[in-house]
Amino acid sequence: MSDSDEIDLRALSDDDLVAQMHDDLYDGLKEEIEDGVNILLERGWAPYDVLTDALVEGMRIVGVDFRDGILFVPEVLLSANAMKAGMGILRPLLAETDAPKMGKMVIGTVKGDIHDIGKNLVSMMMEGAGFEVIDIGINNPVENYIAALQEHEPDILGMSALLTTTMPYMKVVIDALQEQGLRDKYIVLVGGAPLNEEFGQAVGADAYCRDAAVAVETAKDFMRRRHNLRAAATVG
Ligand code: B1M
Question: Which of 119, 177, 218, 223 is most buried, judged by most C-beta within 10 A?
Answer without folding.
Answer: 119
